């Protein structure tokens, strides 16, 4: 399948620019808020309406694609053949509801199972991080260079708070070896920090739509994405994922296996 990368990248940026403009306004409105798996797993009417719009627009532009999406407006996808989009309408819904800050919207694109393009908008900052391995990575129009390959003691880490509280996978030992712990509550915001070297590690249980766009951006810039047991990443299931510099991934995998 031959795809015009530049055209698709520009299209993703256009979609997320519209989403970002709308969500800034929506964040100040009254919201219909429900819980999903637990009281800290929220969904709003704006998650649903945003996803429904994105899925509809993508289907109009790329009718032969399949779409994996958080709120159920996409397809049932059983394999990664062809063109597959991953849509996360509001990443960091708790932040969207409680703080009106530090939330994102994300679209990841995979072609025959391989990372192709990714786009993340930091809604409040109105910055879009986008691109892919064969195109380059950009913040709005400015090309992004690869972050320094720092070691664990040199950098800050972001690990999901339930994982740290329960000390799953020796996560507290990982924190103690680092320069400190930061928790933001949005994978999209953390991926932004990783590609600029503000943090050197992200470890969390991620659904496919949480990971897809960030994986494209991070791997394109020389960062690594690994599972907790170092098995191949499966983009069609939720899993514990480690994202970071090459030095950090090696250090953390040794630590979590102890």
From TrEMBL:
It comes from Companilactobacillus baiquanensis. PANTHER family: INOSITOL MONOPHOSPHATASE, INOSITOL-1-MONOPHOSPHATASE-RELATED. This is Inositol monophosphatase family protein. Keywords: Hydrolase, Magnesium, Metal-binding. InterPro entries: Inositol_monoP_metal-BS, Inositol_monophosphatase-like. It comes from the Bacteria. Pfam families: Inositol_P (PF00459). CDD domains: IMPase_like (cd01637). Transmembrane segments: none annotated.
């Amino acid at each position: 399948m031959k795809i015009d990368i530049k055209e698709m990248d520009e299209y993703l940026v256009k979609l997320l620019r519209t989403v970002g403009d709308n969500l800034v306004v929506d964040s100040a409105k009254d919201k219909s808020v429900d819980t999903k798996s637990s009281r800290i797993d929220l969904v709003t009417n704006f998650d649903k309406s945003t996803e429904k719009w994105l899925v509809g627009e993508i289907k109009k532009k790329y009718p032969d694609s399949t779409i994996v999406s958080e709120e159920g407006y996409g397809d049932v996808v059983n394999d990664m053949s062809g063109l597959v989009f991953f849509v996360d309408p509001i990443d960091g819904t708790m932040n969207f509801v409680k703080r009106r800050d530090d939330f994102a919207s994300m679209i990841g694109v995979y072609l025959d199972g391989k990372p192709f393009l990714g786009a993340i908008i930091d809604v409040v900052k109105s910055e879009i991080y986008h691109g892919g391995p064969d195109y380059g990575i950009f913040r709005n129009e400015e090309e992004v260079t690869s972050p320094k390959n720092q070691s664990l003691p040199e950098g800050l880490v972001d690990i999901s708070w339930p994982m740290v509280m329960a000390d799953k996978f020796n996560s507290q030992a990982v924190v103690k070896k680092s320069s400190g712990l930061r928790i933001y509550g949005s994978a999209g915001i953390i991926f932004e920090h990783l590609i600029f070297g503000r943090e050197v590690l992200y470890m969390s249980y991620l659904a496919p739509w949480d990971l897809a766009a960030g994986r494209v951006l991070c791997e394109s810039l020389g960062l690594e994405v690994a599972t907790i047991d170092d098995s191949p990443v499966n983009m069609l299931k939720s899993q514990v994922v480690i994202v970071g510099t090459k030095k950090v991934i090696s250090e953390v995998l040794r630590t979590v296996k102890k």
